[in-house]
């Protein structure tokens, strides 16, 4: 198991390197000139002289390979350069905003679980009855509604019409409800249906029949046998949801003025702030890969029938 | 099991309702405002990421831009200009201190000018900086600027928000080079930056030592709201008290349609400022087919600006007939507007040999179609709408307009390289208009240079611009501006659309909301809340 984890972590290095090359090339081979963006943000006319000074200040006067080599050399010691816009070290900027995003994403995940688990179970237990139809309608609406659209509806209803929730900014838990809901509704809908489907499948398996034959109470049969086995595929889904949550955060944070890394990345994209974009993509790649790794490990731990490659002698 | 599910759901609902609470706005001594980003380090001698409106709150100029382009004494109570126009002697206001208590005197003024000159390369877009030969602290309250040439817009450019305002000597770094950063943003202005929370807000407090009218609010909280719709919601839900700044898309505070929605709501006060700058399209005189004067004039006659102002700018921006608003200094010239006249436009094209064979087709001459690109910023909905109206209006004249919507940097590159038939290129507004904007027409960094380079009299225009900037005779200066602006008007290298304005939205309890003299000067210190 440890060997497997070590191997997966080692693969992360070439992967991040490849991502960095691709990102660097994609960003730099466009026709955009970040020096031009810098001057625009500063209200300075883009004369040739001003452009030359800006390029020199931003380190854009070197040839591309030299720029990459310089960037890589520094990145290896976790120096990702300075933001073109704020002039501050990129890593410290991202690490400043990342906890806010993690807070929001964590709350969204919690909300997903708190709502989808009971709904999925309820729906399975009440198959083809009213609760099942209602959760089906909920799931249908949830997967069909784009997050940003839901965000606007929530703001209209809970902030403008009812005045219950603050429409933007960071503060108490009440500030998190609407952004978290808009980020997690789709995951909730998917999870609800997934849990329902798994529960129904498992209810007709032979081990459940055997458990019932042993005279175990229905509560134990469903709670211990059916539910435990139904949740294993949900673990994989949750791994994917984490990725979706980070993607959703980019939109939700912008709409709700949540000072997270997603909103920071959006403004970096708008301002062509290359060092920030590069670092953001690398960190997101690392998070995705690490999340996948965690899911695989959790999977093996939950279901001993699953053996990880290279981890057979654990 | 069912019971467990019921308990779980109930618990979730309870947790959610426990987190609910009424949305409260900060009342009392705090004015809540919003801006798209944090105000930045507020280095008075630097640019991005410091926000201009906040620099103007903390730092003050020697001379201030006033109504109709007049110049008002500010940190300099008066000034003398030598007969040769090269020496400016400023008599500084007595009793002014920086917010940390350090006196503002000639030595402090000189220290600031010298710091700016230390990084003159960074500021050389501003001709005034290039013209400074020497700075002298004559005595405690007398500061002298010696120029290389008589540069008449010196006082106008001293009004700018940056780079020539004053930082307390205690805010300077050890080596005196503010180009690398400052210790603390300490100015003489009515506000002091008290706290910055990245991504959340900036808090300003009233400067207790301020020499002028002290702010009526004790605090000004600037919340970071990047999105204009978010800002509108924040106002509607009482999170902010005031929306102030330019309207429209992009860097606008709120969209024009949102502004009009607020204007029609009872219990909300809205206002529109006098023209601040001109929304204009430059027409390329150096590229086929707009190199033909008749085509350019036909465009000016052919576009229905009145309809555009009514339906796109929704009356928030008045129609513009000339490159600069007549309110700008030297610009009230009584130039005859190109009023919308399709017949006249068609006659001009017919006369110039542009024939339309089929009614539905486009005009041609010598086998070449009358077609060109109109370039705009792709995600700027206002520009896109204008471009589409132009396309429709000119199609009726038999002119094919290709719409080229690109992202901002590509768009700016086009402005610089001249790859456009028509391109958006707004003027810079007060206090840059007309002198700085005209000055920039001589440099190949702008759409203006590219638009004008095909004119047979381009050299003469540039010569006159160079002449007007160093002229010491007021009458001669007016005459030169008349020549330059009349030529540009007659040569039809600009399609002025509307005069850009600032807007305000607030509730009636907020009093004293007035517009500042320039686009980024917001007089928060005059505002108060009626209880």
TrEMBL record, chain A:
Family matches, as InterPro entries: BPD_transp_1_N, MetI-like, MetI-like_sf, Nickel_NikB, Opp2B
UniProt entry keywords in alphabetical sequence: Cell membrane, Ion transport, Membrane, Nickel, Nickel transport, Transmembrane, Transmembrane helix, Transport
Residue ranges of every copy of the ABC transmembrane type-1 domain listed in the record: 98-299
Location of the protein in the cell: Cell membrane
Keyword Cell cycle: no
Xref: NCBIfam families: nickel_nikB, Opp2B, PRK10352.1
Homology family: Belongs to the binding-protein-dependent transport system permease family. OppBC subfamily.
Protein's UniProt name: Nickel ABC transporter permease subunit NikB
Gene this protein is translated from: nikB
TrEMBL record, chain B:
Species the sequence originates in: Pseudodesulfovibrio alkaliphilus
Keyword tags: Signal
Organism classification: Bacteria, Pseudomonadati, Thermodesulfobacteriota, Desulfovibrionia, Desulfovibrionales
Pfam families named among the record's database cross-references: SBP_bac_5
UniProt record, GO biological process: nickel cation transport; peptide transport
Alphabetized GO MF terms: heme binding; nickel cation binding; peptide transmembrane transporter activity
Domain of life: Bacteria
PANTHER family listed in its UniProt record: NICKEL-BINDING PERIPLASMIC PROTEIN (PTHR30290:SF37), PERIPLASMIC BINDING COMPONENT OF ABC TRANSPORTER (PTHR30290)
GO cellular component, one term: ATP-binding cassette (ABC) transporter complex
InterPro entries: CntA-like, Peptide/Ni-bd, SBP_5, SBP_5_dom
Signal peptide: 1-25
Xref: NCBIfam families: nickel_nikA (TIGR02294)
Domain Solute-binding protein family: from-to ranges: 71-446
Protein name per Swiss-Prot or TrEMBL: Nickel ABC transporter, nickel/metallophore periplasmic binding protein
């Amino acid at each position: 198991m440890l060997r497997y984890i070590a191997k997966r972590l080692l693969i992360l290095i070439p992967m991040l390197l490849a991502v960095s090359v691709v990102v660097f090339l994609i960003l730099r081979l466009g026709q955009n000139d970040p020096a031009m963006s810098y001057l625009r943000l500063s209200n300075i006319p883009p004369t040739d002289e001003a452009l030359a000074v800006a390029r020199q200040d931003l380190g854009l006067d070197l040839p591309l390979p030299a720029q990459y080599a310089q960037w890589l050399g520094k990145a290896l010691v976790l120096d990702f350069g300075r933001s073109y816009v704020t002039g501050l070290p990129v890593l410290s900027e991202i690490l400043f905003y990342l906890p806010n995003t993690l807070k929001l994403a964590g709350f969204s995940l919690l909300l997903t679980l708190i709502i989808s688990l009971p709904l999925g179970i309820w729906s399975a237990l009440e198959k083809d009855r009213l609760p099942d139809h209602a959760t089906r309608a909920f799931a249908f609406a949830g997967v069909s509604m784009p997050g940003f659209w839901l965000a606007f509806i929530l703001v209209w209803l809970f902030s403008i019409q009812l005045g219950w929730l603050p429409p933007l900014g960071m503060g108490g838990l009440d500030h998190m409800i609407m952004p978290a809901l808009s980020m997690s509704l789709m995951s909730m809908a998917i999870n609800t249906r997934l849990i329902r489907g798994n529960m129904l499948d498992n209810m007709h398996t032979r081990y459940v029949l055997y458990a019932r034959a042993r005279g175990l109470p229905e509560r134990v049969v469903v709670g211990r046998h059916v539910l435990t086995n139904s949740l294993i595929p949900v673990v994989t889904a949750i791994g994917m949801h984490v990725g979706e949550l980070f993607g959703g955060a980019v939109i939700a944070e912008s709409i709700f003025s949540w000072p997270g890394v997603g909103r920071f990345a959006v403004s970096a994209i708008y301002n062509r702030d290359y060092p920030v974009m590069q670092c953001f993509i690398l960190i997101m790649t690392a998070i995705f890969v690490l999340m996948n790794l965690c899911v695989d490990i959790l999977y093996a731990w939950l279901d001993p029938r699953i053996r990880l490659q290279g981890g057979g002698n654990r | 099991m069912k019971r467990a599910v019921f308990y779980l759901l109930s618990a979730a609902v309870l947790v959610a309702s426990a987190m609910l609470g009424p949305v409260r706005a900060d009342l009392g001594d705090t004015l809540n405002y919003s801006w798209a980003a944090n105000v930045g380090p507020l280095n008075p001698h630097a640019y991005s990421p410091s926000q201009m409106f906040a620099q103007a709150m903390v730092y003050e100029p020697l001379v201030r831009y006033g109504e109709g382009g007049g110049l008002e004494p500010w940190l300099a109570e008066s000034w003398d200009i030598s007969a040769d126009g090269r020496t400016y002697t400023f008599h500084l206001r007595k009793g002014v201190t920086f917010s940390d208590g350090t006196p503002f005197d000639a030595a402090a003024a000189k220290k600031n000018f010298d710091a700016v000159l230390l990084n003159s390369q960074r500021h050389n877009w501003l001709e005034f900086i290039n013209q400074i030969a020497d700075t002298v602290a004559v005595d405690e309250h007398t500061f002298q600027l010696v120029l290389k040439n008589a540069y008449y817009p010196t006082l106008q450019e001293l009004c700018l928000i940056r780079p020539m305002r004053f930082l307390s000597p205690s805010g300077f770094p050890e080596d005196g080079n503010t180009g690398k950063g400052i210790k603390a943003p300490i100015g003489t202005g009515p506000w002091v930056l008290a706290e910055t929370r990245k991504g959340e807000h900036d808090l300003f407090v009233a400067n207790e030592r301020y020499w002028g009218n002290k702010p009526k609010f004790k605090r000004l909280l600037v919340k970071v709201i990047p999105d204009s719709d978010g800002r509108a919601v924040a106002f509607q839900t009482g999170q902010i008290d005031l929306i102030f700044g330019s309207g429209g898309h992009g860097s606008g505070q709120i969209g024009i349609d949102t502004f009009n929605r607020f204007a029609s709501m009872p219990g909300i006060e809205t206002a529109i400022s006098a023209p601040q700058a001109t929304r204009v399209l430059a027409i390329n005189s150096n590229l086929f087919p707009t190199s033909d004067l008749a085509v350019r004039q036909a465009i000016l006659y052919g576009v229905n600006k009145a309809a555009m102002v009514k339906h796109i700018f929704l009356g928030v921006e008045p129609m513009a007939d000339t490159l600069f608003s007549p309110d700008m200094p030297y610009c009230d010239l009584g130039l005859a507007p190109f009023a919308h006249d399709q017949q006249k436009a068609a006659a001009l094209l017919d006369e110039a040999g542009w024939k339309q064979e089929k009614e539905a087709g486009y005009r041609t001459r010598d086998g070449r179609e009358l077609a060109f690109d109109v370039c705009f910023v792709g995600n700027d909905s206002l520009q896109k709408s204008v471009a589409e109206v132009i396309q429709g209006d000119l199609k009726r004249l038999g002119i094919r307009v290709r719409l080229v919507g690109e992202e901002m940097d590509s768009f700016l590159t086009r402005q610089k390289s001249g790859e456009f038939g028509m391109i958006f290129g707004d003027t810079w507004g007060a206090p840059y208009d007309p002198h700085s904007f005209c000055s920039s027409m001589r440099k190949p960094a702008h759409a203006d240079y590219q638009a004008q380079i095909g004119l047979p009299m381009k050299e003469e225009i540039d010569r006159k611009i160079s002449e007007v900037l160093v002229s010491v005779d007021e009458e001669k200066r007016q005459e030169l501006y008349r020549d330059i602006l009349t030529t540009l008007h007659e040569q039809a290298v600009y399609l002025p659309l509307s005069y850009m304005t600032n807007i305000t939205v607030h509730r009636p309890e907020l009093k004293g909301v007035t517009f500042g003299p320039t686009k980024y000067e917001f007089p928060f210190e005059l505002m108060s809340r009626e209880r």
